[in-house]
Automatic annotation (TrEMBL):
Keywords: Chromatin regulator, Cytoplasm, Methyltransferase, Nucleus, S-adenosyl-L-methionine, Transcription, Transcription regulation, Transferase
PANTHER family in the record: HISTONE-ARGININE METHYLTRANSFERASE CARM1 (PTHR11006:SF49), PROTEIN ARGININE N-METHYLTRANSFERASE (PTHR11006)
Location(s), subcellular: Cytoplasm; Nucleus
Organism, as annotated: Periophthalmus magnuspinnatus
Domain Protein arginine N-methyltransferase as annotated: residue spans: 235-395
Xref: InterPro entries: Arg_MeTrfase, PH-like_dom_sf, PRMT_dom, SAM-dependent_MTases_sf
Any single Gene Ontology cellular-component annotation: nucleus
Keyword Transcription regulation belongs to the record: yes
Protein name: type I protein arginine methyltransferase
EC number: 2.1.1.319
Reaction(s) this enzyme catalyzes, per UniProt: L-arginyl-[protein] + 2 S-adenosyl-L-methionine = N(omega),N(omega)-dimethyl-L-arginyl-[protein] + 2 S-adenosyl-L-homocysteine + 2 H(+)
GO biological process: methylation
Signal peptide start-end: none
GO terms of molecular function: histone H3R2 methyltransferase activity; protein-arginine omega-N asymmetric methyltransferase activity
Length: 420
């Protein structure tokens, strides 16, 4: 933030009164009235009390200009600095920053492979939807409309914050107010008016599990009738060893900055090893040629209908690969498939490197030290996905070449991937 020293104290006081927590389920953008360059604290405080009591007239307006600075602060706040004052915009939930953005939803909807697969799976199994009650959880509300196209009698579209407003706007403009009912609720506090026949969700992320809401979706199953269906029905998480020397050294080179011994007269080299460790803790989100894979993949299945939120707290995937080529094993590559199992057809969507690229790409986790292996030797070990308090996972990998006894591995932070 660019704060004038003469206004630091005043700005801090303004920050104190500019925190938007409150009873709202999402944050409202602060807007600064240009005619009131320095509003008195009493007026600012009074305005907030009036705003929180139900008056939804914007308080301030921020003109978008070179004088406006904005940055994310922490996991669920933004700091906006305009002229000589700074304001904090604090979202009620950590996911509010993401799901309320139409730009993010546009990116999801424009993924043809993903959106077309959902549409195909629903319409091919229209007998499962005809005259049924459906609960659509999260996303943009598009699945609610797909369900109507398949003949659903009623759809509850569970959204929160601005997406609830956007979905309601689409419902009204498409004359579906009597059939799609928007529930403006967080997943933690949802109360569905009735049990449903089908549960639709699109809350999946990189390596399937990076979306922090996926745990909560499983708790919503309490509103699903016995024998009801879930779309997607299950997921297969695939992993396979890969060899990619360029990627390994490219990742190592990212820390070269910290080898400098005269950075404005400062020796940075004591931090080099720590920087290397940090970069190697980042899962790499990208795509690759299938030729780098050194073995057939193994898979771990997650049945969404049967799984509980507790089941996703700790996922242990043992593996054994018979290597089909000699060389250095630099790490493990991950992707996933989704299955939509209806009464008439089971439709699949794959994020494998052999399939058309999706918004989820693939994920690669590097070993700290590559392992040399010969064709025919076996690589065994375990991948442990352990849920952490940052609404994500720590990925613990251990791997051993059985014939040589050489061992390597890594611990990575799924919350902090590197988009290559």
């Amino acid at each position: 933030m660019n704060l004038n020293k003469n206004h630091t104290l005043k700005s801090c006081i303004h920050v104190r009164f500019s925190i938007l927590k409150s009873k709202f389920e999402w944050s409202q953008w602060l807007m600064l009235n240009k005619q009131v360059a320095d509003p008195p604290l009493e007026k600012l405080h009074y305005s907030f009390r009036s705003y929180f009591s139900g008056n939804k007239i914007p308080l301030f307006q921020f003109p978008v200009s070179k004088q406006l600075d904005c940055c994310q602060a922490g996991s669920q706040s933004f700091v906006i600095t305009f002229e000589k004052h700074s304001y904090i915009l604090q979202f009620k939930t950590i996911t509010g920053l993401y799901y309320s953005c139409l730009s993010q939803q546009q990116s999801v909807l424009q993924d043809y492979g993903r959106t077309a697969t959902y549409h195909k799976a629903i319409l091919l199994n229209e007998m499962d939807f005809k005259d049924k009650v459906v609960l659509d959880v999260g996303g943009s509300g598009m699945l609610s409309f797909f369900a109507l196209q398949a003949g659903a009698a009623k759809v509850y579209s569970l959204q929160s914050g601005p997406m609830a407003k956007y979905t309601q706007s689409l419902v009204q403009s498409n004359d579906q107010s009597g059939r799609i009912l928007v529930l403006n609720r967080d997943l933690d506090s949802v109360v569905c008016p009735e049990e449903v026949d089908l549960l639709l969700t699109e809350l999946t992320g990189h390596l399937l599990l990076s979306d922090p809401q996926i745990h909560k979706v499983l708790s919503v199953k309490k509103w699903l009738k016995s024998g009801g269906l879930m779309f997607p029905s299950w997921a297969d998480v695939h992993l396979a060893p890969f060899s990619d020397e360029q990627l390994y050294f490219e990742n190592y080179a990212r820390a070269a900055f910290w080898q400098q011994r005269n950075f404005y007269g400062i020796n940075l080299s004591p931090l080099h090893n720590s920087a290397v460790d940090e970069f190697f803790r980042q899962p790499i989100v990208d795509t690759f040629e299938v030729q780098i894979l050194m073995s057939r993949s193994v898979k771990h299945q997650i049945n969404f209908k049967e799984a509980t939120p507790e089941d996703l707290q700790r996922l242990e995937i043992p593996f054994m690969f018979t290597l089909q080529q000699s060389g250095l094993v630099h790490g493990l590559a991950f992707w996933f498939d989704l299955a939509f199992q209806g009464s008439k057809a089971t439709v699949w969507m794959s994020t494998a490197p052999t399939e058309p690229l999706t918004r989820w790409y693939q994920v690669r986790c590097l070993f700290q030290t590559p392992l040399f292996a010969k064709m025919g030797q076996t690589l065994t070990g375990t991948v442990l996905l352990a849920a952490n308090d940052r609404q994500s996972y720590d990925i613990h990998i251990t791997a051993t070449i059985d014939q040589s006894g050489f061992t390597s591995g890594n611990v990575l932070d799924l919350k902090n991937p590197f988009f290559r």
